[in-house]
Amino acid sequence: MTDIVHVSEADGDEDLDRFLSMTPQERQSFANSVFGEIHKRYIELGKCFYAMKQRGDDMESVRLQYGGVLYALIRIGAGQTLPSVYVRFGGHRELMDKISNLDPEDQRRLAAGEKVKVLCYTPEGKQTHRLKDPRELTSDERRQVFARDHIRTESEQASELDRQNLKKTRKQDMATFGPLKCDRVARTARCGNDVATLANLRAAVRFLSE
Questions:
Q1: Count of domains in the chain?
Q2: Which domain does 190 fall in, by range?
Q3: Which residues does 42 contact at the CB level (< 8 Å), separation at least 6?
Q4: 42-83 residue pLDDT tens
Q5: Which residues contact 101 (CB under 8 A, 6 or more apart)?
Q6: Are 39 and 85 in contact (CB under 8 A)?
Q7: What is the pLDDT averaged over residues 138-147?
Q8: For 156-187, how does the pLDDT look when each residue is reduced to its tens digit (9 = 90+)?
Q9: Cβ atoms of 66 and 58 closer than 8 Å
Q10: Residue where a domain terminates, one of 80, 103, 118
Q11: 68: how many CB neighbours lie within 10 A of its CB?
């Protein structure tokens, strides 16, 4: 209650007594109207910053004032991101970048609270899925669920999981020893632009051991 009083007095918003005298439905309606105004302001501000950027204005002072918010507002002004996406996901920069590349309908559904399907496997190796709020996704799950411009289907997620697992396996097959970068699968060692095969290395070791 104290917070509401403070906001009301500081910002000159709707009188607290009048707000509390409303019915629950009226308070909800009022909150929705305020939320709508926030969307409009985001769009107006975004269009201003987008126009400034397009005209080549010096944006450094604006960037210092608005920080990471500036990037989001410019995307809103360019029509690439719905304001509701920023409202819901603004605190998750990487996630917001991915959602901003989706088509407007997908953006709208996720901003409204729709969860995404995350493909996973049972201990028996069978495919299943979980429904998760995008904000709760791990970095690996974000890469799994979101393609560059769409939400992956379960079959696409399966392929992406295979790719990620292969990449992790490949990392285990790579090692560096001084200037040598060794690939256990290819059975080669690279030094700069030069590549030596396992046979080359064995011959070199024999020579050095004599």
A1: 2
A2: 174-209
A3: 73, 76, 83, 86, 87
A4: 889 999 999 999 999 999 988 888 887 888 889 899 988 998
A5: 80, 148, 149
A6: no
A7: 94
A8: 999 998 888 777 776 777 888 888 888 887 78
A9: no
A10: 80
A11: 12
Q: Is residue 37 domain-resident?
A: yes
Taking the C-alpha atoms of residue 118 and residue 144, their distance in angstroms, rounded to an integer, is: 8
Count of CA atoms in the C-beta half-sphere (13 A) of 119: 19
pLDDT at 9 over 50: no
What's this model's pTM, rounded to 2 decimal places? 0.61
Q: Which two tokens stand for residue 194?
A: 């030069």
Place of tokens 């509390």: 20
Does residue 67 belong to any structural domain of this protein? yes
Structure tokens at 90: 């603004």
Q: Which two tokens stand for residue 32?
A: 């929705």
Cβ atoms of 97 and 139 within 8 Å: the answer is no
Residue 68 lies in a domain: yes
Of 26, 60, 80, which residue sits at a domain end?
80
User: Is residue 32 one of the residues assigned to a domain?
Assistant: yes
CA angle 14–40–44, rounded 5-degree value? 125
